[in-house]
Amino acid sequence: MANKPKTAPTGWLWTEDAADYLGVAVTTLYRWRRDDIGPTSKRHGQRRYRYKISDLDAWMNGEPSDREPARAAA
Hints:
The chain has 74 residues and is an alpha+beta fold. The protein contains three helices and three strands. Helix 1 packs across helix 2. It starts with 11 loop residues before the first strand and ends in a 14-residue tail after the last helix.
C-alpha cells in the first residue's frame, strides 16, 4: 500500500507538531517562548502549549503578533 501524503493541519498544533511545522527543534521553540521572540502560544493545562496555525504562518511571514508592542513612526 502506498503512503498517503499528509494532509495540511488545521486549527491548533502541540509544541512538538508546531516545531515540525516550522522546521525547528522542539528545544528551539521552548527557547523562543522563554525569550518571548517566537510565535504566539497558548498554555493548555500545567505544562502543555499549543500554537494556532494561523499564528505560526503569520510569524513565519514576519507579521507582528498581538503581544508585540506597536512601534511608533520616527
